């Protein structure tokens, strides 16, 4: 099957393989560069990177690879009620998390100035840094940002979970559309309707979007091997985005315990939940999932929920515990085979040859 597709040409890569970007601090320069150096597109989830650090990050990745790579941001940086909390609101939410803080030996934190960096400031820093590719989720950047990308030669790629989102991205002039099926691990990046109402599978979504837009489509969700890449290309996609298979590699920034679960025999089911960040994400259920699920209506909005959980996660990781951390995973995890990027890329390329 030919690998020189429109997406491959537009991105300047050798093969139709894109590493999905990981937020929450589990992207690494080593992972991104390893994928890009093998002819795919490495991607760094930068939504929790401070604007003033984005240029530094771009230089670090550029020093590790001369090949194209992507920086990924979240266009919508807060949900209603999540931009700022009063002290009274903060104090009302904290008791939900207090037992975990006490269990892990943590003091009650002070409210931060920001629960999440503002997208506008991050986008300005990204434009200044000029990465080869700017990928984004949870919305469409402003016309000004997209025009600046074109002027600076930055390729743009936006995630869509529905037909309407794909059409909105095309109308805005985005270069590539990532058709993200509900099988994918991590967050459901819906932005025109609630994520729970935007649950197209990759098989259907890729075909439907490909028939309705003129820009190249990238399929994401449920792909871990060459068979999945072949299927995506057969359905009309111009490349495949692979997340969980790269997350399970040694080069990613997740924990060894998370990797062990991904490669283990026990992970037969995943679940969609807002328990960890306030936005819907596909995860491996654990104790934190089980205990917060019944309290869903009490939880704070994104990004406040994610801020509280991130404090719990840091302490749990330090204690080598997996019961109180976020365990992202796609539905296809039981088919994982490879534990490092060279082995995974070699297998993918052999299947494509």
Automatic annotation (TrEMBL):
Cofactor: FMN
UniProt keywords, alphabetically: Detoxification, Flavoprotein, FMN, Monooxygenase, Oxidoreductase
InterPro entries named in the record: Aldolase_TIM, NMO
UniProt-recorded Gene Ontology molecular function terms: nitronate monooxygenase activity
Catalysed reaction, written as an equation: 3 propionate 3-nitronate + 3 O2 + H2O = 3 3-oxopropanoate + 2 nitrate + nitrite + H2O2 + 3 H(+)
UniProt xrefs under Gene3D superfamilies: Aldolase class I (3.20.20.70)
Keyword Cell division found: no
Family: Belongs to the nitronate monooxygenase family. NMO class I subfamily.
Name this protein carries in UniProt: Propionate 3-nitronate monooxygenase
Keyword Ribonucleoprotein: no
Alphabetical GO biological process terms: response to toxic substance
Organism for this UniProt entry: Denitrobaculum tricleocarpae
């Amino acid at each position: 099957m030919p690998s020189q597709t429109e997406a491959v040409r537009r991105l300047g890569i050798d093969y139709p393989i894109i590493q999905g970007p990981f937020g929450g601090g589990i992207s690494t320069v080593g992972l991104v560069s390893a994928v890009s150096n093998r002819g795919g597109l490495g991607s760094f989830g930068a939504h929790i990177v401070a604007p003033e650090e984005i240029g530094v990050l771009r230089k670090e990745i550029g020093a590790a690879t001369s090949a194209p790579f992507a920086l990924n941001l979240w266009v919508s940086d807060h949900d209603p009620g999540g931009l700022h909390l009063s002290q009274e609101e903060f104090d009302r939410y904290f008791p939900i998390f207090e037992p975990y803080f006490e269990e892990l030996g943590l003091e009650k934190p002070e409210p931060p100035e920001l629960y999440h960096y503002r997208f506008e400031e991050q986008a300005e820093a990204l434009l200044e840094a000029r990465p080869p590719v700017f990928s984004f989720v949870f919305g469409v950047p402003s016309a000004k940002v997209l025009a600046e990308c074109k002027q600076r030669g930055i390729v743009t790629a936006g995630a869509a979970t529905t037909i309407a989102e794909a059409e909105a991205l095309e109308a805005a002039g985005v270069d590539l559309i990532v058709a993200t099926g509900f099988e994918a691990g991590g967050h459901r990046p819906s932005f025109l309707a609630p994520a729970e109402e935007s649950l197209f599978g990759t098989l259907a979504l890729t075909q439907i979007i490909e028939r309705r837009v003129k820009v190249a489509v990238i399929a994401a969700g449920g792909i871990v091997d060459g068979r999945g890449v072949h299927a995506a290309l057969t359905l009309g996609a111009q490349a495949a985005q692979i997340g969980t298979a790269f997350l399970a590699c040694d080069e990613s920034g997740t924990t060894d315990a998370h990797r062990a679960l991904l490669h283990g025999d026990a992970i037969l089911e995943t679940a969609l939940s807002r328990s960890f960040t306030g936005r819907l994400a596909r995860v491996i259920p654990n104790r934190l999932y089980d205990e917060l699920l019944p309290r869903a209506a009490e939880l704070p909005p994104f990004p406040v929920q994610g801020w509280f959980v991130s404090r719990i996660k840091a302490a749990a990781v330090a204690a080598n515990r997996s019961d109180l951390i976020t365990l992202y995973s796609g539905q296809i995890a039981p088919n994982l085979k490879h534990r490092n990027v060279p082995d995974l890329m070699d297998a993918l390329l052999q299947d494509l040859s």
